[in-house]
Amino acid sequence: MNDKVLVVEDEPKLAELLADYLRQDGFLPEILADGLAVVPWVRTHAPDLVLLDLLLPGRGGLEICRQIRTFSSVPIIMITARVEEIDRLLGLELGADDYICKPFSPREVVARVKAVLRRTGGISEPPNSALSLDETSFRATLRGRDLDLTAVEFKLLHQLAAHPGNLFSREQLMDRIYPDGRVVSDRTIDSHIKKLRRKLAAVAPGEELVHSVYGVGYKFEVE
Known about the structure:
Elements: E1 4-8, H1 12-24, E2 28-32, H2 35-45, E3 49-53, H3 61-68, E4 76-80, H4 85-93, E5 98-101, H5 106-119, E6 131-134, E7 139-142, E8 145-146, H6 151-161, E9 168-169, H7 170-177, H8 186-203, E10 210-213, E11 217-220
Parallel strand pairs: 1-2, 1-3, 3-4, 4-5
Antiparallel strand pairs: 6-7, 7-8, 9-11, 10-11
């Protein structure tokens, strides 16, 4: 994926949390806390998307958005604890592509980032166009048929399909689908993969999409 996402947030823990979630999904996050540094950074580094907090030291998010729009059409998602309708409308009128109110789930933010990038042409679907993954509802369809996946199965398929041909060890998959660091055995991952393959085979019999490499791990690949 390798899309560069600028996280503009002056709460260090929240900024790092968002960056961690973005990184787990293949994005390249950068963090800025000072509002005055944002516009020069965007001019120099040309990010693929900006997550922009409204209340920042130095310069506010609305003014930053206004300035960025004078030279760039980079997608901007505004983040704020101010939920008044006037702020929402003003933010969007200035050229923001979406608006998220605190408190929020980091997973929701990542889903919004992907949705905006798809809408603006910055991110593509997995190469197997017959496969559709909706992160907001955790719904997966193959050739128009619902796969009826559990949340863990969806996360596994999304991680593999987002990086076709890339081989993931069991440990890497555990880190991505269990970011809280819980202890999970290799057999648990194998069990989820087995169930995922069964559901894929029910829709596409004879076509193997999730491949295993003995003793190493798994990868998504269209034969």
